[in-house]
Amino acid sequence: MKFSLGQIAEIVKGTLEGDPSVVISEMAEIQNAGPGEITFLGNPRYAKYLSVTGAEAILVPRDFTGSYKNLIHVDNPNYAYALILARLRPGPPSPQPGIRPSAVIAESASLGRDVYIGPNVVIDEKVSIGDGVVLHANSYIGYDSHIGFGSVIFPNVTVYHGVRIGKNVRIHAGAVIGSDGFGFVRTEAGISKIPQAGGVLIEDDVEIGANCAIDRGTLGDTVIRKGTKIDNLVQIAHNVKIGQYCFLAGQSGIAGSATLEDFVTVAGQVGIAGHLTIGKGVIIAAQSGVSKDIAAGSTVLGSPAQDMSKASRELAHIRSIPDIKQRLKELEKRTRESYQATHGIKKAKND
Amino acid sequence: MKFSLGQIAEIVKGTLEGDPSVVISEMAEIQNAGPGEITFLGNPRYAKYLSVTGAEAILVPRDFTGSYKNLIHVDNPNYAYALILARLRPGPPSPQPGIRPSAVIAESASLGRDVYIGPNVVIDEKVSIGDGVVLHANSYIGYDSHIGFGSVIFPNVTVYHGVRIGKNVRIHAGAVIGSDGFGFVRTEAGISKIPQAGGVLIEDDVEIGANCAIDRGTLGDTVIRKGTKIDNLVQIAHNVKIGQYCFLAGQSGIAGSATLEDFVTVAGQVGIAGHLTIGKGVIIAAQSGVSKDIAAGSTVLGSPAQDMSKASRELAHIRSIPDIKQRLKELEKRTRESYQATHGIKKAKND
Amino acid sequence: MKFSLGQIAEIVKGTLEGDPSVVISEMAEIQNAGPGEITFLGNPRYAKYLSVTGAEAILVPRDFTGSYKNLIHVDNPNYAYALILARLRPGPPSPQPGIRPSAVIAESASLGRDVYIGPNVVIDEKVSIGDGVVLHANSYIGYDSHIGFGSVIFPNVTVYHGVRIGKNVRIHAGAVIGSDGFGFVRTEAGISKIPQAGGVLIEDDVEIGANCAIDRGTLGDTVIRKGTKIDNLVQIAHNVKIGQYCFLAGQSGIAGSATLEDFVTVAGQVGIAGHLTIGKGVIIAAQSGVSKDIAAGSTVLGSPAQDMSKASRELAHIRSIPDIKQRLKELEKRTRESYQATHGIKKAKND
């Protein structure tokens, strides 16, 4: 696909400072962009490449004051870049609707219109698949599960029984939805398993990364609400409730029955203990370990996690220990000297 | 299924305080339970819902002193709840024994009686499958591996060659058993791979979570003893030995050749370094990083992990630094004043 | 396979101190080795087993001074052990070249000579598979991807579209290569997905562990250079560049657009934030959280990670707080006494 800069400025609702007739055929990172290519300045870290880039044009923030041969000023360069990229690179061809011959579909399953069921996909009894769903190769959909309109399941995904998936959900390869929660009781006889008899509810527009594990509930459901995005290798334990429009970055883990309210952001490798409530809009920094409820709107850090400002002060305090020791030594010296002066004792040789 | 409260009290060996003829048809979480439903009080955090629950009856500890229309006092409400739930919700129908036509089974493999081999399951040469085993769709069992009586392998599991799995083992979807350990030697020529020529031994009654990775041994076996339960996304490196009845929570990782004795509890996101020994009954708190052997019976915390009481004291010490600074400032002031008093020097303007 | 000690000494270019005619048929760990078995002393931790091992012979370092019935002195016992193990235990039979009938191969895909395509493998349009490639059961290779000479893909692996894999690469079971990066923009309308329109480039001799997740680039490629080895459950985000001959241990995670130069070693459960540069030869200790660029040659530790010596000093400082408090108390006492002495005030009762 090709677009003129004039067209691009329209698509991104931007203000062009340059030649509208220039033709753009590709997008590239600022440090690599060359003739015919547009790039963007979404992170100030990359401003250093402005002097070396060969890009034809650059998407920049409204308040950008530098100069370049062709600039398009926009509200949000990252969003503008997403819009343009979707036009310039439409991606691999979508699979044509149809059922590949090696798919194994139970008799009582129901399929919507215009679905694609890839090779070796296995669909169990009582499953219902909505219109326009794409199930890629080698995935498994368990008994009595439902997948809503337009959702895409990538290869080698496992959906256990009794899982309800909304519309336009994307589940990446290797993810597992609805495995048993980790529920056991130590008894005199050894260890007893607690039945994991709940399900999983995933609402519309959720995206789940590769090789995630999302357990089913014990009694009620594990729930992931509308628009939440989950990165790779994330663990969601039984009966967790995740609100709308949350972000969970890679390798984070949420223990059983924890609740995340809406708009929570969880960075990479964070752990959240069981039965906690994380308030609306909370931001949890990478590798934090959350062991208490977190009030809405907070930003927390550390293991155990605490308010960002507290955690920063704590780190500063730790780093001031050498200074404390120095001052302490000084005081000890003074005190000793003063004592000696008062009492007329001479300084010991080894002191 | 339906049971009277009298029947339920018998099943859980509990003491009913209420009407034995009340009929129970479902179980629910205390905050959600309503008419016809029984719930349980397994965690004191949930006592706050006693005043709002609509449950017909509640399973409570023997020493519970509150009042409610129908209570059943039991030794362990969590265990009682597991027993009742298993009766009330028998789960999805178990697959009928049989071999689905798209399964691919090598000639030299041997299958026990009453096995279920799901669609697209691949069984390699010399594999032996015990009686009553269930292999769900799209799983792979490698050369010369063995799966014991009654074990259940969920979809998309990979069992490499030379893996021995005991009776009544459950392996959740996406788990990988017997992949190569991470063994390499830097040499002049670059990096040489150390052959991973051992196997994996998984004893009876083990449960392994979704998307775990359990490597084969280099020389001897990686071993997981009877009754141990492993949560999702756990990493077990080559030649690790895990004792009986251990719990390993989600995203924990055990490096090569470490030994966990019996009854060890490893919380979420814990890391244990290679070649260590973790004594019997040790408890390791979430996100800890264990870098030394841990004596039997200890509870450890932190990264590097140390005894719980030491770690708590250390945290208290860190949090007392502001107080230390305050006291230091006070002393400095006093010392300065005392010096000035003694030497008759006036306070400097900028001091 | 069997070898005489004389043959073994030749294979490992070692110096035999013992009987060259002794026959070795197996290799074992030092604590378990018995008659007919050779073992090795690669880690001084295991020297304690020298007095109890029943091994026929031991591979030891050149400078080893202990005595045993048969010793072979070598430059690197770990490497010698790798060489011998490869001879003694050739592993399970390699699959014979051929295409298993249940494999599903698109018309426009091209296959090299002597490939093995296992049962239920799915190969999409425009894929090219090099000579001697082994694709194990139930794997999926997406549109327009390429797999180079001699590479081995284990079961249940997913390779998305547009992934280029070099020669002699090994990808373990359940790994996912080329899933979408975690790229979203919050907008007024909610959350917009940034197209993940780049690819993945994996160079020769790379090994990737079980259940890893390696995302495709947004614009350019995610890149893993020659000879790098990646353990299980590792997360590599979009546009990460990993140099040659790096090691990434289990459950480590590299956030988007980070660069690792050559010969970097990343221990288990490490997290590296986005857009950072980790210099050549850097070593990052287990569970570290890297939040800044790291200069070549450094060894770092902690979360936030800092130079190993700084981190150790910091830990020592923290552990000296009780001593600081003791000294502070002492000073306070002295100061109080001195004040009282000077001012003639009696010690208060409650003091």
Structure, described:
The structure is a homotrimer of 351-residue chains. With 351 residues, chain A is of the alpha/beta class. The first copy, chain A, has 3 domains: 3-88, 3-Layer(aba) Sandwich (Udp-n-acetylmuramoylalanyl-d-glutamate--2,6- Diaminopimelate Ligase, Chain: A, domain 1), CATH 3.40.1390.10; 98-309, 3 Solenoid (UDP N-Acetylglucosamine Acyltransferase, domain 1); 320-351. Helices cover 15% and strands 28% of the residues of chain A. Chain A has 4 helices and 40 strands. In chain A, β22 (184-187) and β23 (190-193) form a beta hairpin. The radius of gyration of chain A is 29 Å and the shape is flat. The model of chain A has no long low-confidence stretch (mean pLDDT 94). Chains in contact: A-B, A-C, B-C. At the B-C interface, β22, β23, α3 and α4 of B face α2 and α4 of C.
